[in-house]
Here is the input.
Amino acid sequence: MTIYRQSKSDMAQEDHIKTFPMDVFPHSTISVAMFKDVRKIDELKTHIVGGEIDAAIVSSRMICDLFQILVAANKAVNAKTTGKLKTRNINSEVVFCLSPSNSITDSLKKFGVSPEDSAVIAVTVDDFDGQKMQVVLQHINGEMVPLEQLHRYTDEDTVKKVYKINDVELQKSSLLDSVVTRIAVKEFAM
Here is the structure.
């Protein structure tokens, strides 16, 4: 009988992948991991478009908090469960749901990865056996880091501009609250 022992690097990687059950959809989970010093973004995009990666890969500069991702993923799972996806699959729906825009193309450009990105976030839905994230690990040329480092890579000025958040609003609300509100009500605000 062979006993598999995880190496320290395997355990560290597992510690950096966070999985969250969905309260409203108990049959679903969201797994999230962040990578820095990512290279070969064009190659990564080719793998995403080619369907080799079953995950949403998001620019970390547009994310101010992990909760922002969880809200968007929850909306995407709801759209899939109710048969109301606006995009081709659950992964592009997660990216679309992050955006305040109802334009799919605009959402994918602003929240998906671009050659300027050096840090990205991978989001998998219903990755019960961890295989989807393992494929992500094989295709991302970068270092996995704890999600607690996310704030280091957020471009708050760009986030405020894209979500149209001004300083007056931030006197009464946090950046995260303003962003999440726009994600939650985007269908009704337009």
Observations:
- The longest helix spans residues 66-81.
- Strands lie at 18-21, 29-39, 56-59, 120-125, 141-145.
